[in-house]
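Fill-in record for 4,4'-diaponeurosporenoate glycosyltransferase.
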Amino acid sequence: MPSLSIIIPTLNEEECLGRTLSYLNFLEPPPEEIIIVDGGSQDNTLSIANNHHVTLMTTSTKGRAIQMNQGAKLARGDYLCFVHADTLVPSNLVTIIEKTLNNRQIACGGFISLMRGANSTRWGTSLHNYLKTYYAPLLFRPHLFFVKGLRLLFGDQVMFCRQRDFWNCGGFDTNLPIMEDADLCLKLVPYGRICLLNRVVECSDRRVAKLGSFKANIIYLWIGILWGLGVSADYLKQFYADIR
């Protein structure tokens, strides 16, 4: 059976990482490995990682694309799955990915992301993120949407693909400070369809809680439109501040 490597980029994730790793410890069947790539945390992230059965590496240059590529270089698995440190996945994650990628017409997949906080579920933002998977490629890459099956997935949707295809297309673009996940979908679509599964993962609502629902959704929409029109990700980064 093909093996799966789970890769988690971290930077000051002490509030979320322990819970995420606890969920991953109960995956059945288990993955080949869990790799954490830290970008220079100044809190207890490394200590939390060391208390779990993971492979921990650090990089002197932070950035999700850089860190995830570093993890992929270390990975032994036939399949790669990229999980954010604040995201909880189904207990049968490995089986879901294996069954999905067993279809050779599918190059990459992801999940429906449900955004939750301690006291609320962000239904509106979660719905917008779900719809964005479809309307963004339909508006900005209609040919690829209809002919190639392009969907645009984002990091909190727990993207996964074959390691061979990942490296054949060049992996994540390390020059992109944001939107590296959507860019990867564009690079992978020549290898097969991009698939949004009818399964849910849960991610933290910390960004929406900090910015407010209205402001956060406007920012998400604005970034998506500008990116679709070809605006540089370096310019777009100013609208997407790091929030922990």
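KEY FINDING: The beta strands are 4-10, 33-38, 55-58, 79-82, 87-88, 106-116, 160-162, 193-204.
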